[in-house]
Each structure stands twice: as C-alpha cells, then as structure tokens.
Amino acid sequence: MSPSFDPRDLTYPAGHFLDGALVSGPDQIAVHAPSDGRVLSDIPLADASMVDRAVQSAKKAQVESGWASQRPRERLKALSAWADLIEAEALPLAQLEAASSPRPVTDALKNDVAVVAEQIRFFAEFADKSCDALVPTADSQIGFVASEPYGVVGAITAWNVPLALAGWKLAPALAAGNAVVLKPSEMTPFSTLYLAELAVRAGLPKGLFNVVLGDGATTGSALVSHPDIGKVSFTGSTRAGIEVMTTAARSGLKPVTLELGGKSPQVVFADADIELAAQCITRTILSNAGQGCVAGSRVLVQDSVADQLSERIAALMDLATPGPTWDAETTYSPIISDRQLNRIDEIVSAARHAGAEIQCGGTRFDHEGSFYKPTLIRKVSSDSPALLEEIFGPVLTVQTFSDEDEAAEMARHPVYGLCAGLFTRDLSRAMRMIRRLEAGTVWVNRYGRSRDHILPTGGWKSSGIGQDLGKEAYRANRRIKSVLIDL
Hints:
487 residues; 2 domains; seven-stranded mixed β-sheet; alpha/beta; Aldehyde Dehydrogenase, Chain A, domain 1; Aldehyde Dehydrogenase, Chain A, domain 2; 38% helix
C-alpha cells in the first residue's frame, strides 16, 4: 500500500491534549502545509492558565498512578506496548508528520516513526537496569547514591523533525519515572498529538504525557517558568535556547538540556575517497532541504581536490526534484515557510553581491510551494553571513585549505560547535583531527547519526548544554541524592 495521501482526506487533531483527551481553546493559530501553502487546520494557543492546567494534570498523574514508585519493569512493559502501537499506527503517524512538516511521507514512515519506536524501547530498558550505587565508607556507616525523577519535565521541540525530537524528549523522561508536558512547534503539531493519543491507548496513565499548543513567547515561556516544572528540555535555535535558559533561571533555577544551532564543518583531505565524501556531503544538505541543526553546511577541502569535489557535489545537487510531502515519490523537501525561504535567499543574494561564486542553485524552484534550489557557494568572504550564520536551508559553502593546521583553524566557528565531518584514509590524521575539532560529535568517513541510540548527542559552545540520547539522557532525567547512614 502506497503511503501517498491527499491532505484534504486527513482528520487533524486540533487541540491541547490533557488527561487523555483533546481540549479546545481560544486564540486560534493557522497551520499551513509547506508543500503548497494551504491551511490544514487551526489550533488553539495555550495561555499561562492552560499551561498550569496541563502541568497540574501531569503532576497528579505521576503521583496517583505510582509511575515513579512502581516496579521499574512495569514502566518498561507500558512503554514497550506504546512502541508496539506506534509501529502498528505508522502510516497515519507518518501522514500527519508529512502534512505540515518538511518531511516527505516515505522518509517519515521508514525513518522517523520507526526511530521513535526504537528510542522508546531503548530507554525503557534503562528503567529496570539502571541502579543506584553503594559507596565505600567506614564500617560503621552505609553510604549510597540514590536517584529520583524530577516529577514533571517540560519539553519543547522544533518543527524540522517533530516526531523524532518528541521521541528524544519523551522516551528518557518517561522511562526515568517523570511525567511530561510537551509543546511542539505551532507549525507542526499534529503527529505529536497523535503520539499522545497512542500513549493513552497503549495503557500509559492519562495525564502522564500532556501536550500544549502555542508559540514560544506565550506558551513556551509559561511552560519553562512554571514552578512545578522540575526540568526543561529544549531543541531549537541558539537564540531561543538563550531565552529558555534565561527564563528557567529567573523562575527558580531548574536544570535545562539545550540542543541548539550549528554551522558544522565537513573537512575533506586529498587522500579521501572523493566520491564517498561528495555523496555524504550532498546527502546531508539535501536531507530535509538542509533544515537540520546538524547539517554540514561548511565544506573545507584540501586545495588539490577542491575543483573535483565541488563539481561532483554540484552535479548531485542538480538531481534534486521538488515534490509535495504527501507524494510517496518525493525525496526533496519544501522549506517550512515562505518567510524562511526568503531569509535563505537574502543570505545567498548578499553573498553573490559581495563577490561569491554561485556554482549551482541560488534561487527558488519554479514550483508550487516553498522550494529552494540546492545551492553551492565558492569564494565566499570570511565575514559573509553565508559562512557564519546558521542558514537552515540547502546551502553549502566551499573553502580550501593547504594542511592540517589550516583545516583545524578554519573548522573552528566562533559561536557553534555541534557536529563535524572528516574524510581521510589516514587513521593517524583522523585521530589528530578528532581532537582538534571543536564539536560535540565527530563523524569520520560518514556524516550523520546512525540508529545506535547509545551514542549521546549534544553541542559545545553555543550549540547546546547537556546530551540527548545515550545513557546520559536517561541520567539527566533523574536527580541525585547522597545518603549516609550511621549504624
């Protein structure tokens, strides 16, 4: 059965999800399809009172259900049942994901939905396998380190991969014994709402996972500042992350996990497999039309192979064909909105006017919807926004270097340190460069995450604080208590 669909045939969940049911509200926000701009549905905006209702519901559900105090294996069973139901409902989930987000429905079905189920199972296994530790003390004492859930975790996710980001937040927090109130982007709420409905159908206590809809200024701020939110987990831009951290500090000092922006380098040495490098680099910037914080948008290539690599990347970029996200054949995504597309075009145009060479692309597609051509920029000045700013679109810059020292210096960004790619056949060089690259993740002879959820992800510098995924994410959702008993 083809996953293709007509967006007019879908029923869009359009309300806050509290205590296991959709709740309407005033102050409607229109949700558009980036593929053609149509309005899919209106959703309500949660004010502070609605956020408080969601948090109190979650707090009550976490305590009265015994979610944190029950045998950990019971949490594992409940979360595993949820993962099973997500897989069973993969098609409607993928279609809701594709309708309002940049995710083509085939990608959402094969990757995003499957990854969410995998993440839930992965973190569920920590529930009955992560244990507290006795510590050495005097023979007349018992000392141990205990951990407990925070209570209610406030989570905020971005619009670029809504389902996957929801899995990042929900799976470790719930497995660790917390309740969650999640605010998805107001541009892409539907798949997250259906995920919450499936949680209740799978047997999770009503209210344990609530969803509030709205923007960052009103809804997000109210969620982060709520006194009963014990921890905040946010994915989005660096600018918004600074606001989240500031609000969290002003409202009573609560821990935050921030997965923020990036302007990641991909460093290609002359001894690399150039075809492999070209394929990896092109794939990452074409995936989701470059709308990802990990997009490797700065190519640094050794000067002797720069022309060869650039020409191959440009040829691969020219193969991109736009199409609506609801068509199963579509592989190239729309930009989330015309506003974002115009920002991309302004940055590219500024680079062109400053003397940069646009090797391919540099304009929007002549196609219905918000589609921008994959763009390769060479000879860009060192102070160009195209080189310094997170564009969040299908735009690559290419710079050349002569040796390792110059490559390491050029790879360093004054603001970001999320990811880096490295292509070389020399293992010794790879090990030297790994140490010199200022990034929370380094990929060698590949670019992009695998589905090994044990590997944490997090940024250096202004790319974030803390880690998502890995055992680190589970531990971050439990607070530590030291205990010393005199016998």
